[in-house]
Amino acid sequence: MSETTILSMEALTRRIEAVFRKGGLSPQHASALARVIAAGERDGCKSHGVFRVEGCLRTIKAGKVSTDAEPTLHDDGSAVLRVAAGGAFSRAGFELGAPALAERAKQLGLAALVINDCTHFSALWPEVETLADMGVAALAMCPSYATVAPAGGTAALLGTNPLAFGWPRQGGHPYVFDFATSVAARGEIELHRRAGNPLPEGWALDSSGQPTTDPTEALAGAMLPFGSHKGSAISTMIELLAGVMIGDLTSQGALDFLGTTTLAPQHGELILAFSPERFAAGRPGDPFARAEIMFEAIAGQGARLPSQRRFKAREGSLADGIALTAAEIGQLDRLEAQ
Ligand code: NDP
Ligand code: PYC
């Protein structure tokens, strides 16, 4: 078995934050990024864990992200709140906008948070989970950069466009799912390449549009949407709602801006929040109690709820620490010394 090092959540967060401070990020952004990356490792979500640090630093070095723009919240009292991220990483903008979004959804029943001009590399579950903890159901989505062929197509056009949903549950973790609308996140392809493993069939096309299981060819070619035409249509919807509609870049625009897929993409994000109490007002049954019946029925068939694996991994990490491989620790050491 390869050697591992165990770090507490706090120690890992501090190490990542130090790397980002050294890399030039302001304290606000270094802290926000370190927390979300450490949370990925804590929850066993490797595709958006420590391995993302290097890509963030490359993006900073390339001058493609603001290191210190302070996000600003624009609130005209309507259901649509806007955060201008100013070309910085998205997380600080989300942290600024989330409490206002939850509050507005409780007031109106439904509200939206638009984040414009943000560099976004992170998983979306931390966002919908935060909102569910604030008592609202939430749906988050964003483009990425053009790396996915539409179903029936041959070349990259759509992004891996993640979609995440959270539903609050009393006395327990919320119901949360979060997935790329490609067969897998691009980070998974990169992790297969690093491990020297072939991809499963049906994940990708090479640069001539032919099916491939070689991760290097897949990275140069195109990934495929999940569920064929269904994933392709959901991904297109995300381009429309979280790109075109909010006046921000589509995945193709993000790729044109960057000129490469080796840096973190800049675009916008759309987060919708719903107050289940407001929607169910005057109707029979408590929506949270009815949701529990649904969750019990799913589990009753032996199926697991999405995020159940993640919450279990979190429990383990918080009790026993987070295990990093020698390669991951070596990477942090190297980046810290640079
Ligand atoms: P996965 O396929 O690993 O997981 C998708 C979801 O399905 C998770 O909520 C997972 O829960 C759940 N799930 C998996 N297996 C089962 C099962 N057997 N029964 C019930 N639920 C299950 O995710 P992806 O590879 O598609 O995406 C990984 C991450 O990449 C996401 O967090 C996404 O936000 C991020 N991403 C970010 C992008 C960006 O531009 N910022 C772009 C694309 C992806 P669990 O975790 O508990 O297994
Ligand atoms: O894993 O597909 C991905 C991804 C793209 C941008 C950030 N993550």
Description of the structure:
The protein is α+β, with helices and mostly antiparallel strands. It folds into two domains: 80 residues, Malate/L-lactate/L-sulpholactate dehydrogenase, four-helix barrel (Hypothetical Oxidoreductase Yiak, Chain: A, domain 1, Orthogonal Bundle); 197 residues, Ribosomal Protein S8, Chain: A, domain 1. The protein contains 13 helices and twelve strands. It has a seven-stranded mixed sheet with strand order 2-3-4-11-5-6-7, sandwiched between helices. Strands 9-8-10 form a three-stranded antiparallel sheet. Helix 1 packs across helix 2. The longest helix is centred in the first third of the chain and has 19 residues. The mean pLDDT is 96. It binds NADPH dihydro-nicotinamide-adenine-dinucleotide phosphate and pyrrole-2-carboxylate. The site of pyrrole-2-carboxylate has 9 residues, from helix 6.
